[in-house]
Amino acid sequence: MTQRPGDDDTMVLRGQLPPGAEDFVEVPFAVPDGVREIAVSYAYERPDMPDGTAGNACDIGLLDADGRFRGWSGGARDSFRVGERDATPGYLPGPIAPGTWRVLLGPYTVAPQGLAYEIHVAVRHAPAIGPGRLPQPAPTAIGPPAPATGRGRSWYRGDCHLHTVHSDGSRTPAEVAAAARAARLDFIVSTEHNTTSAHTAFAAEAGDDLLVLTGEEITTRNGHLLALGTDPGTWFDWRFRARDEGAFARTARDIRRAGGLVVPAHPYGLHLGSQWRFGYEHADAVEVWNGTWTLDDEAALATWDNLLGHRVLPAMGNSDAHREPQVVGLPQTVVLADALERGAILEGLRAGRSWIAESAEVDVAFEAVAEGGERAGIGGTLPAAPGEPVVVTLTVTGVPDPVVRMITDEGQTHLAFTGRVEWRTTSAATAYVRAEVRHAGDGSMAALTNPIRLVNGSTGGGR
After folding, report:
1. Looking at residue 53, what is its pLDDT?
2. What is the pTM (predicted TM-score) of this model?
3. What is the pairing mode between strands 411-416 and 445-449?
4. For residue 369, what is the enclosing H or E element?
5. Is there a single domain that holds both residue 45 and residue 109?
């Protein structure tokens, strides 16, 4: 690496990364006193490669003089700036302290001949403070308001995986909020890749009709993790792999300490590094449906169903929408909560009192009732004597020509081609039952529920 002054305020940093380079490379540069803004641009060689051979791809971010995270744009931008009062989306404004700052490079893939890069760093000095002028304090992290006007205990629809211009999306927070309202959602979660800069931007987009929670998509090299409903401004480091002992467990603890849920995203994602390798021991839920229903969702659904035999792990569905024509709210998670506020929504998700729909047009009612009168809904536990009949009913609207599947710990136990299904079982025969509603034409998913558990007994349980 070389560093030379371009002029009084600019420097150029050059280097070469070999194949097998570290996941993240810090490139230092000096920031003198009196700087009010840092502007960075970069480029790297992108040679043509034969089919089947990875070329160069390099992400970028910034660490300040104290080693604190100041922003990340991945590969979405080739330039950014960080100032005392404002910053490029994805980056955090604040004081520009003198010292050694670092450009953070993330060589996603490196070609066999290596990756040559060139970074331009411009440091811009503050003007002299004249009479009557005082330095303005840097903005603090402000998140959206916690409560919204709800309907008391009710089913609330939300999309918990969304991106804007603050990471690799093309919509603004205002456009995402407008799309959420158009989709008739009650809540959304801000989940930018590895940055919290959108938290403040979303503060202006929440309202009585839309609850906005804050979070992050932690994009490791061995899978992506949603931190949902965390305290505004709380950032989680993503620079670890499954082989780093204890890293996922520590991150999960940190997410919960910040009030959030730990949710592996798209476990069988098709992009490099997006397949989930950490297991599910420390997860609070799992995203089994991501965007338009495809084969990777089928794989995630099968993995989740296998887990249900020994662990209650709720399923979620989210759009992961980045840009048009991706649809905000396709799919959406519908959760039973006591109020439209952060704690109640997260508690409903954690308990599995939720189901997934392709749109707000789809509605589902799913319940199990024992002969003795005990009943349980989605996410609940129904106690029934071993031989006591249990009636499971499903009613679905908004799906033309539905194909309904009842799935238990034995697999598919009932198939119907109608919007109302009634199926009988016992707690001795069935440990849990969940429902899927598919389209008759192509078999794609229209709705699926979390399970109702059946246990031997005669008291307790229920919703």
Report:
1. 92
2. 0.93
3. unpaired
4. strand 363-370
5. yes
* Residue 98 CA, distance from chain mean position: 35
Quote the CA–CA distance of 285 and 98 in Å, as a whole number: 43
Do 216 and 345 lie in a common domain? yes
CA distance linking residue 158 with residue 154, whole number of Å: 13
Burial of 302 (0-12, 13-18, 19+ CB in 10 A): exposed
Same domain, 346 and 427: no
Number of domains in the chain: 3
DSSP state of 462: B
Percentage of the chain exceeding pLDDT 70: 94
Closest CA relative to residue 363, chosen from 157, 152, 151: 157
Count CB neighbours of 29 within 10 A.
17
- Do 156 and 296 belong together in one domain? yes
Residue 390's domain comprises: 364-463
Does 150 lie in the same domain as 116? no
The residue out of 92, 125, 158 marking a domain boundary is: 125
Nearest C-alpha neighbor of 187 from the set 171, 164, 207:
207
Compute the CA torsion angle 370, 350, 219, 146 (nearest 10 deg): 140
| 259-318 pLDDT tens trace | 999 999 999 999 999 999 999 999 999 999 999 999 999 999 999 999 998 888 999 999
- CA dist 218 and 382 (Å) reads 36
Contacts (Cβ under 8 Å, ≥6 apart) of 2: 12, 13, 14, 15
Q: What is the CATH number of the domain that holds 50?
A: 2.60.120.380
CB 3 within 8 A of CB 12: yes
Looking at the fold, whether 259 and 111 belong to one and the same domain comes out as: no
Q: What is the pLDDT of residues 185-241, one digit of tens each?
A: 999 999 999 999 999 999 999 999 999 999 999 999 999 999 999 999 999 999 999
Cis before 325? omega within 30: yes
Q: Give the pLDDT confidence of 82-131 residue by residue, as tens digits.
A: 999 999 999 999 999 999 999 999 999 999 999 999 999 999 987 644 44
Determine the Cα–Cα distance for residues 147 and 74; give it in Å rounded to an integer. 32
Going by C-alpha positions, the residue among 107, 127, 97 that lies closest to residue 32 is 97
* Same domain flag for 171 and 290: yes
Q: Would residue 446 count as lying in a domain?
A: yes
List phi, psi (to 5°) of 179: -65, -35
The owner of tokens 């476990």 is 267
Residue 133 within any structural domain of the chain: no
Query: Does 137 fall in a domain?
Result: no
The pLDDT confidence band at residue 141, using thresholds 50, 70 and 90, is low
Within a domain: 179: yes
